[in-house]
Amino acid sequence: MTHRVNRETLSAGLASDSWRAASDLLVAAIPLALTVLLLISGFTPILRTLSDPYTTWTGFAYQALLNKVMNYALAVQENAASPTALVRLREQTLSSLDNTLEYADLRQVEQIGPARLSRAAELFRAAEREPSVALKQARFMLAIQEVQRLNEQAHERIHDIQDLHASQLERLRLVLLLAAALSGLLSAALIWRSLRLWRTERQRLDGQRELLSLASHELRRPLQSLLLATDLLRVAQSAEDRLRYLGVVESSAGLLASRANLEHLDTMYGEIHLDWQPVDLVPLLREFEGPRTEVLVPLTSLTVLADAARLRQIIENLHENALRYSPGTVGVGLQLLEGRPEVWVRDNGPGIDPADVERLFLPRERSDTQVQPSAPGQGLGLGLTIARRLAEAHGADLTLTKAPGGGTMAVLRLQALTHAPRLQAEPVSGRQKRLR
């Protein structure tokens, strides 16, 4: 059953990846598709115009007709051509005047002005029939003028076609500019989308790496305690020592189990979820008594609503940090101030610069005055980061200040008590209960 579920999950993941790849390809093809569409819409009208035979002529037929009429009239007037040549010129001229198929655009040209091809033919034939030489030449001049006006209308037609071509080219230019602009905008949008996805993925991976670093940092202490307890257990002489070391092993194993759940790193160190319950701070702090640690707590209990495991993590990080950077003993204490309990951890180190306080709560940041830790091994610079995050999840304040007389004091100010003590006893010095 498990293998089948895994295969189904794998198949679903592969299908999702395939669909994501296909959708990314389709999105990437959008600029190309729009550019092609715009170019087609821009080129089609001008191609239609340029391929139209009615809009690609040059008006040569009209100029040729004018030349024929003028040459024939000149030959008749000067009587310089042979009868055969004159008949040939006449037939050519009449053929051009009567054959409207030579002028495929004749209707458009005649709509421009008053000149008509049929009138030119009538004037030409009237000139031929005129017996008087003077009147014949006058009628030929009228025919020539009619053909000349028709030729001028043809030239106007040419200008109209040129204007049409110019407007089509201008439209094409605008379409090309629009296609380039849209393609550029879409390309920029896709690049921005890719960069945003890349940054999101990078932030996600950076967040995962940070969570893994925080988890690794928090697993180190119980693992070291577990290894130390197992070594001591091998050489324990009495049943009492073995039971004590077994208790340390059991406690460390429980801490490892609670902090090694990699599937819930975000709820453990990112968007932290807490298991709220009443926690007595006095016995919790007394667990930190050791050869180098003096614990000062009230005689009566102080109970707050908190996550016991996470609260312990806060104090562990503050305590470990104090031991690491203090050459002597450190102090852990508890006091009640204005109805709110304060847990403090004090070291005897060189202290910190007030300007560095907030920077020290950032990941992998250390104070310039704490470059030589007394404990072996260089810290990762994550303890205060974890402590601050867990404190904020509890609604508590965590601050670092210079301790009176030297050193650094970390103060964790928790929320108001859920069960206030009846009286405030004098703090007493803690005793050594276990090896730190």
Describe the protein.
- Helices cover 62% and strands 10% of the residues.
- It is of the alpha+beta class and 436 residues long.
- Helix 6 packs antiparallel against helix 7.
- The protein is rod-shaped and about 155 Å long.
Query: Could you list the spans in which at least 5 consecutive residues all have pLDDT below 50?
Result: 371-378, 419-436
Number of helices: 12
User: How far is the first residue's CA from the last residue's CA?
Assistant: 47 Å
What is the strand content?
A: 5-15%
Describe the main β-sheet briefly. 6 strands, mixed
TL;DR?
Helix content is 62%, strand content 10%.
What's the topology here?
Layout: H1 2-51, H2 60-78, H3 83-98, H4 106-112, H5 117-129, H6 133-234, H7 239-259, H8 265-270, E1 277-280, H9 281-286, E2 293-297, E3 303-306, H10 308-324, E4 330-337, E5 340-346, H11 357-360, H12 383-393, E6 397-402, E7 408-413, E8 428-429
Parallel strand pairs: 2-4
Antiparallel strand pairs: 1-3, 2-8, 4-5, 5-7, 6-7
Helix pairs in contact: 1-6, 2-3, 2-6, 4-6, 5-6, 6-7, 10-12
